[in-house]
Amino acid sequence: MGNDGGSIPDRRDLVRTKAKAEQADKANQTRARWFFCALSKRRLEEPIVACPLGRLFNKDALLEFLLDRASYGADGAAVAGHIRSLKDVKELKLTANPATKGKGKGRGEGENEETPKFVCPLTFKEMNGAQPFAYLAPCGCVFSLSGLKSLSSAKEKEPGKEGSTTPEKDEEQLELCPQCGAKYSKSTDIIPLNPSPDDESLLRARMEAKRAAEPKKSKKRKAADPESSDPPKKKKSSPTAAPTVNPNIAATSRAVVTSLALEEAKRKAGMSDAVKSLYGDPSKPKQKETFTTMGTFTRYA
Ligand SMILES: [Zn+2]
Hints:
It is built from 11 helices and 10 strands. The chain has helices spanning 11-35, 59-67, 73-80, 98-103, 109-114, 145-157, 167-172, 197-270, 273-279, 285-289, 291-300, and strands spanning 48-50, 56-58, 90-91, 95-96, 118-119, 133-136, 142-144, 174-176, 183-185, 190-192. The protein is mainly α. The chain folds into 2 domains: 11-156 and 169-214, no CATH class; 217-300, no CATH class. It is elongated, with a radius of gyration of 40 Å.
């Protein structure tokens, strides 16, 4: 089928090429995710950090982003918007690929870049996206998932000291990192690197749940100080203080009113009948009503 006029492109031809393009795209994406910083898109160079969603960053690029969240534009917010500070990421302890060490000098740079820099310290599988890898949240050590699983399953098979414990207790028990000995939880501390979309949504849900639980405590302490101390004070003060303030005001105003009334009475008592007739006599309301008389009266009084 050489496009010589006699061939009509079949559906399969079109779909196949599309599928090939998609495959190539996927391969590129995989390579990009495992070899390049998710933020800067530069080649991953240690120190490398990973976020709770298993994304890989060059630490310097992430620092740049944290200092200026606009530094990588909209892409930065999409890729690392969930990272609030360096506390949210873990610096990874990676195992260098022996292949890059030995052959690196003799190879051309282009070839060398194709070689995965890191391997699983348990299985020596290369970290290139073909195998699922994960890091341990407490220590940042990176292993292939198969390596971790083979370890834990080997442990389970061992009828050792902890053999009598039930499977439930085994899950609750903290495992020890095979590389550095740090304790980690098998259920929550194994963070897959560059996870599948399903795994990522799980990780995101876990991250949000964790943040809703943990930082709320600290946030509550911080925010609750103003919230729990101030607003309750306001709440307490508004019902209690308002009545206390108001009676004070009422009392003082009442006192003022009564003193004024007394003065008025004294004045009235001392007033001549003529003046009284001007001001207080209800039989002459017209004079009382006039603004000028009232004004002159008060001025004279
Ligand atoms: Zn470790």
